[in-house]
Amino acid sequence: MDEKIKKLLVKLEDLNQQGGQWNIDHQTGQFLHDLILKHKPEIIVEIGASNGYSTIWLAMAAKEINAKVITYEFVPDKVRDLVANLQKAQLIQYITIIPDNANKRLTELNKTIDFVFLDGRKNEYLQQLKLLEPKLNQGSLIVADNAISHKHVMNDYLYYVRNEKTYKSKLKDIGTGLEITEKL
Hints:
Layout: H1 3-18, H2 26-39, E1 43-47, H3 53-65, E2 68-72, H4 76-88, E3 95-98, H5 102-105, E4 113-118, H6 125-132, E5 136-145, H7 155-163, E6 167-172, E7 178-183
Parallel strand pairs: 1-2, 1-4, 2-3, 4-5
Antiparallel strand pairs: 5-7, 6-7
């Protein structure tokens, strides 16, 4: 990992410890990065970028495999920080930032998707997945964060991916819990 990016990640981890950022932890970031390298998606969609911590992990992997990340973040201060942090990491060229509510804009996405990272409003995961379903390639991975810590808020999503016959889903006990779902 580039030293400049490593220092930026540590700075963002410290900021997260102070509260208000709601970022994934380092272990989860590394896991997502490695998962992307293993599956080699062309198009990665992230919902809920916050200040860009998770986006940096996604972008590092995208850079290695020549993929593209499309990220949605609607809070103006977070979008500002997201842009600044991606510029500092020199990864912004691998990212398309949609500074709006994903629920309003996902229907405009005219690409097929290979990898999704859901980390926005937990009670909207199922709605977002259903908006993305027509665009998901067979074998696409959907990774939903907070599947342990916010299970009660995302029960409808968890029930759907675990019971719908077009998906195979399992819980990974890492960070705050990742539900990893494959489209069959």
